[in-house]
Structures are given as C-alpha cells and as structure tokens.
Amino acid sequence: MTDTQNTTQMTVTTTIPYSIDSGQYYPFNSNSDQSQPLIEDVNEHKVTRIFIESGNATTPTLKNEFTLFNREYNKKKRIKKEFYYSYNKWFDETAHLSVVNKQISNISFLKMVGLGEDVLPYLLKEFKKVPSIALLIALEAIIGKDIAQTASNHTEAVDLWIKWGEEKDLIN
Amino acid sequence: MIINNEAPVDEAFVLRNFPNIDIEGFIVTSDLNPTYNCFAWAGNDDTKCWLPFKSKYYFWYTDNTALTLENVINNYSHIGYTEITESSDLEEGYDKVAIYIDEGGEPSHAARQVENGKWTSKLGDREDIEHSTPECLESDSYGKVKVILKRPKKYKQSSTKEENFNEFENFKNLAKGIANVPKKRN
Q: What is the radius of gyration, based on Cα positions, of chain B?
C-alpha cells in the first residue's frame, strides 16, 4: 500500500489493492473525473487496483455512487451465480442425453433461459466451449430471434452465433 | 467450431448415471463433442446429429418426424441394418446396433458393436465411451435395450443420403434374389 499526502490541499490519495471480498470499495479514477469508475471487468471480478481519494470518500455524492455501484455489482454477481448454478446442474443432468427435447425441458435449463439477456456473456462463453443444439435453442429463446437463420447446419449456426457474440462484445 | 473438454466424463459421473456399468471394461474414447449424437455415432457418422426432427440441426433418412422405435429401426435399415437379432455377442461377419427405449417407449439411445466385441456409445453432447455390453448402459436415463439390429460387414455405407438409399434398395433387391437380374426383352 502506498500513501501520498498533499499538505497544501489536505488530500490523501491511497492506492488500495482491490479484492472481490471488499465489494464496498468503489473503484474510481482519482487522477481525472471522479465519477468515472475504473471498472475494468466487473463480470470477471478482475479489477486489480483502485484509487480512493480519502478526502472525498465520505461525501454524500460518493456515498450514493458507492450504493449504486454496489447494487449493480451485487446484481451482476447474483445473476452470474444463479446462471452457473443452473448451467452446471443442467449440464450434469442432461448433457449425456441424445434427445434434445429432454435437455430443454429440464427445470435448470428453463431457469437459465429465464434469467434473460443478462446471462448472454456467460452463456456464450459456455456455448463457445460446448456448442450444443440445446444452447443454440437457449440463445434463440433469450434474444427472441434466430441469428443463424441463414445457416444450413449445426456447424454454420454455431459460427454465426459466435460471430454475433463477438460483434456485440459479449464474448471476451 | 472450437470444442473443448472442460468437464470430462469421470468414474463418479458414470457410476451415478449408469449404475449397471462394468467399470473395469469402460473407457472414454473421445473428447467431449456436441457435433454428433448417439444415433449418428451408432450409424458410423461423427459429423452431424441424427434425430427425426424437421430442423436444420438434424439429419434423418426419411421424412417421418415421429420419435418412435419403428422410425428408428427404419432409419438404420437405410444403412443396411435390416435384420433383428436376439444376441449382443460378437458374430463373425456382422455389424450390430442396439436401440434403447425409455420407460415411455421412446427411443433414447443407440450403441454400436466394435471389432473387439465391445460396444461404443456417444453420450449425448459428451464423449464416446466403450463398454462391455449394451445392457451396461441400461439406466433411468437410457431405459432398456429393446432391439438389436445387424447387417453384413460387407455392407458398403456411403456418405450421402442418396447413395445410401440406392445401396439400401440394392441390398433389399439382393436379399430378395432379384438384383441384377436383367429384364426379359420381348
């Protein structure tokens, strides 16, 4: 941890390592606009460091920003957790089945789809690893249209969905 | 298409889902790959999924879209499996395919006998495995083996639906002893 004190302005700038467990910290850029958060990758919880201008840390504005950030952060964290819980359970229970109807009528599959568009980054990430027909159906159900309408087979459809995900910046 | 194998079949998974399996005789023979399914793999095809659904994602030899035992048997007849046998033992000169049905009577799985007398199965979107007998995979998920089909090893399976259809017709004709008999000219 590095501390730098500016005696003229009585402002202390501290560099604090960010930890997933310290969700109450709000990462913002102390060098320029304080309202611009330094959220590099909230989905992956990979913010490596934050700057907190402790002189402003207790002001009402920042407090509001803390709250907003925490609310958004916790929502994303909850959706990711719910998605992976359902996805792993669904995969474990149905990936060995050959008849797709049985895969997509599984309760965990329905829960996963029911989480809506917020799960697209996670769903596409898993789809890229295991591009099953059931996940093609999940993607189509979530966004409400078939991106792979022009595809003539499974492989072409997978390529079109991955391309779409990359264009929408949903796949890292 | 990129295929990874992040959650490989392990003994715990197999024992949980297939309690009748002979764990000593069971091996994983491929990576996880959802490009083809068990019905395709039993028909020697690892390029697409076989199911009688009207969809660009599936292949089937006929236009019948009913997922019934009769339709599955009929589908395999297009690649030469026109005989039904009681035995799952290795039989010189024959290929065999076992069809499973679930408790509702719907086809749920298919396995194929390999050269060493063991059986190979594609586990849905997952890996291929080799197992001692078709009965090994009888379970809540796959139900029971209902029918075992066989075809002569000399049967030449083609890669397209049309060629196989012709082969099928020739095979039927051959079986009836009327193939290649020139028509009488008046």
A: 17
ipTM for the predicted complex comes to 0.80
Backbone phi and psi for residue A36, each to the nearest 5 degrees, phi listed first: -90, 110
**Which of B35, B56, B125 shows the shortest C-beta gap to A151?**
B56
Q: How far is CA B1 from CA A47, A156, A159, A172, B174, in A?
A: 31, 9, 7, 16, 41
Residue whose tokens read 């059986």: B119
CB contact under 8 A, B123 and A132: no
* pLDDT at position B143: 96
> In terms of Cα–Cα distance, which of A42, A58, A44, A46 is closest to A17?
A46
Least Cα distance to B32 among B56, B50, B10, B59 occurs for: B10
Q: Which of A78, A76, A87, A98 is nearest to A124 (CA)?
A: A87
Is B2 in Cβ contact with A97 (below 8 Å)?
no
Contact state of B124 with A95 under an 8 Å Cβ cutoff: yes
Contact A50, A16 (CB under 8 A): yes
Nearest CA in chain B to A132: B34
A98 Cα to chain B: minimum distance (Å): 4
Distances in whole angstroms, Cα of residue B92 to Cα of each of B42, B96, B130, B147: 19, 11, 20, 19
The beta-carbon neighbor of B37 closest among A98, A128, A155 is A98
pTM of the prediction?
A: 0.73
Handedness of CA B82, B100, B36, B131 (dihedral sign): negative
Q: What is the pLDDT of residue B23?
A: 79
